[in-house]
Design goal:
Layout lengths: L1 H28 L4 H24 E2 L4 E2 L8
Antiparallel strand pairs: 1-2
């Protein structure tokens, strides 16, 4: 479980870095610039990865984290 959360935290930091880079580049080149679009697409992939990680440890039926099935991670 700890490794899963560590990965989510690393991705979250990476997302923030990509967001800042994209914002800076978009201010210089515009939002339709191919480089900005590429960063945006990578950012989307990272956001989805975090969502998938969180979904694997979240139990929708109870609204709680599923510690039992991930306690050895």
């Amino acid at each position: 479980m700890i490794m899963i959360l560590k990965k989510a935290l690393e991705l979250t930091k990476s997302i923030e870095d990509y967001r800042l880079d994209m914002d800076e580049l978009a201010k210089k080149k515009g939002f339709s610039n191919p480089d900005v679009i590429t960063i945006s697409q990578k950012l989307d992939q990272k956001v989805l990865a975090v969502q998938k990680i969180l979904y694997t440890i979240y139990t929708p039926q109870t609204g709680t984290l599923d510690y039992q099935s991930h306690k050895h991670g």
